[in-house]
Amino acid sequence: MSSSTQTASYADDAAGAEAALDLLISGSRKGGKKLLKCPSDPTPSSWHLCLPPHFNAALGLKFAYKQKVTNRQVAERWKEWVQSGNFDFNEGSIIYDTDVCGLNTWGEKLAAIESYVVIGKTRPVSLRIINEDVTDSVKTHRDPGLVTFKIYVPDPEPGLTSICIREVTLTQDEFVRFAISGKSPS
Predict the structure, then answer these.
(1) CB-based contacts of 120: which residues, under 8 Å, 6+ apart?
(2) Could you state, in order of their start, the residue ranges of all structural domains in the chain?
(3) Which helix (H) or strand (E) holds 111?
(4) Contact 46, 14 (CB under 8 A)
(5) Element (H, E) at 150
(6) What pLDDT, in 10s, does the model give residues 155-166?
(7) What residues form DSSP beta bridges with 79?
């Protein structure tokens, strides 16, 4: 039995990530084949917000064991990045529009960004199984969750402050689209 790491395909830019997101939230079987972004690389510069690797789990990205079975025997086993639509951005997270990981002070970060968001109330994406007595069938309902966040911009007046320009409530799905493209349905 061999053990190797497989390479998943991922979206290279915001347009590709939006297409992959559409497949994920529509429930398409093709949904989990393409990752929204490369989990180990910086977020593509075409994205609206910067989601470094520590946001992988919130984006539904995880490293999972996979295996190939031949004649009821495990022939090959490997680890691979997989994408789910189980988004779970958490309260208190701060997400900038550019990578500020190497910057040490608030002043340096404020000078480098155009905006950032602070996440407030959240509810993760969840699946609920519904038994329909009339048709004797089982259906799965996907609750797209909830994210309330505030958008901040640096204060144009000298100092180390920022201004909240808007508070927004979206589903987790819509928040991921906002992070990718900056588009929100509101």
Answers:
(1) 91, 148, 149, 150, 167
(2) 2-181
(3) helix 106-112
(4) yes
(5) strand 146-154
(6) 988 788 999 999
(7) 5, 65
Lowest-confidence region among 9-18, 23-32, 125-134: 23-32
Tokens coding 121: 């109330």
Q: Are 178 and 166 in contact (CB under 8 A)?
A: no
Three-class DSSP category at 141? strand
Confidence of residue 186 (pLDDT cuts 50, 70, 90): low
Looking at the chain, the whole-number percentage of residues with pLDDT higher than 70 is 91
Q: Of the candidates 163, 185, 164, which has an alpha carbon nearest to the alpha carbon of residue 176?
A: 185
Mean pLDDT over residues 98-119, rounded? 93
Distance CA 6, CA 68 (A): 12
Task: Provide the token pair at 150.
Answer: 């505030």
Phi, psi of 4 (to 5 degrees): -145, 170
Q: Where are the beta strands (DSSP E) in 14-107?
A: 34-35, 61-70, 73-83, 94-96
Q: State CA 98 to chain mean position distance.
A: 16
